[in-house]
Write a structure and sequence with these properties.
Layout (H helix, E strand, L loop, with lengths): L7 H6 L3 H17 L4 E5 L2 E6 L2 E8 L3 E5 L6 H7 L3 E3 L2 E5 L6 H19 L1
Antiparallel strand pairs: 1-2, 2-3, 3-4, 4-6, 5-6
Helix pairs in contact: 2-4
């Protein structure tokens, strides 16, 4: 991303309309699972923080949407995650295929649970 942005809305507006809709859906999916999280821009990416800690980032790219970092997952969930895994901590969802919002929801829920367990 060449231009600096200050808000998630600004970030999303830098993309074509069809990608904006997907990014907004990713945002809503995260917000639904982590309603108490704060939105910000970190590393020039939309970021959600919870209890003062980074929870999850997402980003739009030319051919995919990325989600970072990826929590530790069990064997069953790893089978679902593996087709999208770009590296240990990154998932890439191709724009030409349906985005698995339910999978994003479950991954964010794992982040929220880990975050809350650190607080107790």
């Amino acid at each position: 991303m060449a231009q600096k942005v200050d808000t998630i809305d600004d970030y999303i507006r830098t993309f074509p309309a069809d990608v904006q809709r997907i990014l907004q859906h990713v945002r809503r999916t995260i917000r639904n699972v982590a309603p108490g999280a704060d939105e910000t821009i970190s590393y020039q990416m939309p970021t959600f923080n919870l209890n003062g800690r980074s929870l999850v980032h997402f980003a739009g790219w030319k051919h995919h949407i990325a989600l970072y970092p990826i929590p530790a997952v069990g064997e069953a969930l790893e089978r679902e995650v593996s087709p999208y895994r770009a590296s240990e901590g990154t998932l890439r969802f191709p724009l030409k295929k349906p985005i698995p919002f339910d999978l994003i929801e479950r991954l964010v829920a794992l982040h929220v649970e880990a975050n809350l367990n650190r607080e107790s």
